[in-house]
Amino acid sequence: MTGEAGALRSHPAGRDAPLESVGLTPVEIRAYRALVMLRESRPNELRRRLGLTVEEAEQAFAALTALGLVTTTTNGPLRLVAAPPDVAGEGLLLKRMQELQAARMEFVQLADEYRAALPMGTVDELIEVVPRNAVPQLNDQLNSQAQDEVMWVNAQPYLAPVATYVKELDRLAEGIKYRVIYARPLLDEPGMLDVIRRDIRAGEQARVIDKVPLKMGIVDRRVALLPLLTGAPSGVAGWLLVHRCALLEALIALFETMWLSALPLDGVVALPVEGDGTGSDLASEDTRLLTLLLAGMTDEAIARQLGMGKRTVVRRVRQLMNRVGVSTRMQLGWKASQLGWLTSQPPPASTPDMPSVP
Questions:
Q1: pLDDT band for position 269 (cuts 50, 70, 90)
Q2: What single-letter DSSP state applies at residue 40?
Q3: Are residues 166 and 248 in the same domain?
C-alpha cells in the first residue's frame, strides 16, 4: 500500500503502548489514528485504507464508538467522525482511573478477607515468610510505596550486586528520607565507598558500625523486611515481612539504638575547605582518612580506598594527632568528635576534658 493509505499505517510501535494501556487494541488504535488524520470518513473507505476485513472493521468502529472516540453523522450517508482527542482522551483516562481505584479498593478488601480467614491467634497476618526469589521485587515495591522514611541496616550477603539498587536515588529525589547503617566489613568491598559517596550526595544519611546483629529494612515504621536466618547465605533461606506488632516496635528500637552508636559517614564525601587551626576546617582527604580510621578500617584498607601508600596514611594520622595535641589514635577520635570534624554540625561552645588513655 502506498501514498496516503501507506502513511496512515506508519507509526512507531512505541507510540501505541500508552493507548493500549487504556484498553485500545492495535486495530482500534490504527483506526482512530487514521480517522484523526482524516477527521471523518465513510466506514467502507476507512476499512479499505486500513486493509481490514468487514468483521475487523465493524468490531473496531463499534468499540471506538462505545469509548466515545468516534461519533457518526445523523443526516445523509453514514460517516465516522473522530472525536477531539484531548476531550475524548481525557474522558477515557478518567474512566480508567476510576476503574483502577475500584480495583485497588477490591484488593484491599481481599487482603482483609485473606487475614480474616487465618486461624484465630495466628501470627501469619503479622509476620509473613517471603521466598528468597521474591525479595528483590518486594524490596523494590516497598521502596516505591514509602511515604516518609526508609531505614536500612546493610550487611553481607547481598541479594544482588550493590550497584543494581538504584531505586533509593529516585526516592531521595522525591523527598523520601533514607537513614542507612553499614556494617564495617562492607567498606572493604571494592567500589563500596563510591556507592556510599554517591548516595550521601543524593541525600542519604549514612553511618557505619563495627558489627550488626542482623540486616533489615524498615519502611515508614509500618513494615520491616529481614532475613529468616541471620548470617545465612542469601540464596538459602527466605525472608520475614513484619507488619505492625510488638516485634516491629522492637526492630525500630534496635535500629535507633544502633544509629546513636554508629559513626556518621559524612566525611567520605567531604569537600575541600580552606583554613588552619583546630576547628572543623579539615582538608577533604584528611576528613575521609579520619572517617575510615574511626570506622575501624586498617591502614592497608584505608590506603587502598584513598589511593595512597600505607606509610602516607601513617604519616598523615600522626600529623592529625600532632595538630590537636594527642598521643594515641583513640584520643584523636575523641578530639575529632569534639571538634566537629566528622559532621556538618559546628563544635559545641565548650567540651568536656578528653579522658586520659594509658
A1: low
A2: E
A3: yes
